[in-house]
Write a structure and sequence with these properties.
It is a single chain. The protein has one domain: Glutaredoxin. The chain has three helices and four strands; from the N terminus they run βαβαββα. The protein has a four-stranded mixed β-sheet with strand order 2-1-3-4. The longest helix is centred in the first third of the chain and has 17 residues. The chain is globular and about 30 Å long. The model has no long low-confidence stretch (mean pLDDT about 95).
């Protein structure tokens, strides 16, 4: 599973990264995590608000930091 966090490195982006890692580890998932900070790449996903969560190329959340429980649902 490839997980990408789209954002410029703001506090919400970092919070999403930590919460996503916690959710994936709790579920025992094998994953690769990539932080995407380049604005052109972020825009190529069609995302207008960051932070955003992309799982296997599909945008799952944008403009907010879901709870760990919500992230678990988005990852499975």
């Amino acid at each position: 599973m490839k997980i990408q966090i789209l954002g410029t490195g703001c506090a919400k982006c970092n919070a999403l990264t930590m919460a996503t890692e916690k959710a994936a580890q709790t579920l025992g998932l094998e994953y690769e995590l990539e932080k995407v900070t380049d604005l052109n790449r972020i825009m190529s996903f069609g995302v207008m608000m960051t932070p955003a969560l992309v799982v296997d190329g599909k945008v799952k959340a944008s403009g907010k930091v879901p709870s760990v429980d919500d992230l678990k649902k988005l990852l499975v």
